[in-house]
Amino acid sequence: MGLKSKTKTMPLTVFSDEYYMKxxxxxxxxxxxxxxxxxxxVVVCNNKVIARAHNQTETLNxxxxxxxxxxxxxxxxxLGAKYLDECTLYVTLEPCPMCAGALCHAHxxxxxxxxxxxxxxxxxxxxxLHPKTKIDTGIMHxxxxxxxxxxxxxxx
Length: 156
Known about the structure:
This protein is α/β, with parallel strands linked by helices. 37% of the residues lie in helices and 19% in strands.
């Protein structure tokens, strides 16, 4: 009997990228409920979520209150350190240049985002991250993109 594909038959387990992206997705849903752009983020260190956040630019009347920025601050506070080199950020949309700059300065170890942002994502400007930061993309792409697409359809 052959092995089955992990992505099709394996159950969602704790410590998997899918598990943590689902946590970020739940944050995006919280943003949606608060009538914010539905983007969510979690920071994981040693297989533990140490920070979670969603966009709050409208709630806080602050253009810098992106999910990633709030998650970086919460993670640094949780660790009592400014560098997040042992951490992974899971975020539902590719970070913007502002967030990428903050992630660079935080020395984030890895970033995993669900959906690319061809209009406002940092990668269209070249690599803005710390040289040691690893990247992965596409986990829960369809679900996260759908949440954003539906939000903007209703707004227009």
